[in-house]
Amino acid sequence: MEMDLNMEWVKVQLFVRKRFDEVLDVQTILYIIGLQELGMNHQSLRKEQKIDVIHIGVCSVLLPLGYYQKIGFDDDGWPHFKNIKKLPNEIVGEQQDVFMKKAIINYLRL
Predict the structure, then answer these.
(1) 68 φ, ψ to 5°?
(2) Which of 24, 50, 52, 53 has a Cα-to-Cα distance from 79 of 20 to 30 A?
(3) Quick one: CA dihedral 13, 17, 65, 55, positive or negative?
(4) Does residue 1 have a pLDDT over 60?
(5) Which of the 8 DSSP states describes residue 85?
(6) How many Cβ atoms from other residues are within 10 Å of residue 19's Cβ?
């Protein structure tokens, strides 16, 4: 199972490397997914906005897994999500990284 995850993650890394000409970490990929969900290109954003974009990326990859539901958009066109399923408490540290990698792999397959 872990071998499959590693192989799938390598495919994700190759995909983003072709597009961005560098290897990106989980957080940066979530940021890019957030930008995509917003329909935005990379631009100068304040730190708080970057954190919000990463959060949108997290919610977007966890939405198909049943953890979040999109509930609408604000006046600026930013999506809002509702947490509908609690994340397992034991997901910390490296396990959190593995969990998010699986969610990103699943999201990119959609």
Answers:
(1) -130, 160
(2) 24
(3) positive
(4) no
(5) S
(6) 10
